[in-house]
Amino acid sequence: MCKYKINILNPIFKLHYENKLPFYRISTTSGQKRFYSSKSIDNTIKPNNIIKPTPIFVLKNLDHVNLYKELLKNKGGIYSFINIINGKQYIGSAKDLYIRLNEHLNNKKSNSSLQKAFKKYGLENFNWAIYEYFTYETKILHHDALTQLETNYIQAFDFSTLYNMKRIATSSFGYKHTDEAIPKMIERFKDKNNHPMFGKTHSEEVLRLISKPGDLNPMFGKTHTDKAKKLMSIKKNKYINGVGIFDLNGNLIKKFNNNIELGNYLNISKVTVGKYLNNNLIYKDSYIFKPIQ
Question: Which family does the entry's similarity section mention (predicted)?
Fold first, then answer.
């Protein structure tokens, strides 16, 4: 087994890592290399292992994570946010460490207990560590294997010292909220202040990371069906029950799903429809456009 110094990865870590621990490199699947700091009999972290996992390297300044893009992009593995005040940590896994780090820092798909700790102690009191990572030519890595590895790391620590909510790592991929949970979520987000992204905008860097250009986009080379377009139009509609043409006595003459349909019927633009509808104006001295109650 060959050993390497951590500073061969990038000289910048000389400034951020106090103890230059060795780590081991082993082959995994084709085109992949695995790097980790704690060695057991079969080169894996086991639950309740006597030797606790030790970070390969640590980032201490989370305000400038863009500096580490070249080092972390396209590398997957096991990471941790460590509270330097009380030692408590959150352990997670990722197929792209750089994207996942930015998601946590922008409170996107992040652990709620961790976000509360960020607010309580301040981001400056957290280090971000990597226990293990993979380099690979493509991101073809079995999801179950990665979550099992994350579980092994979680179980290697006293659970009371973690922000993790479960001892077993799980994914929300394919998860559907229960019928009981959905109304609660809708009610909660009626107040926009409760939304994690309220008043925030993604940086250009994050937008580039979460965008999926070309064949990475699930709709690449495809077009929505007329039925799908109609459903999307209804969901985007400002008026849930649609809009209608009324006479001056308030009697409904004809109903439409949205402003576009009403505009097409009268051969006018949706902007014109909106002007008459929003300002209670009378159209051609005979009609009023109103939302359906």
Answer: To endonucleases of group I introns of fungi and phage.
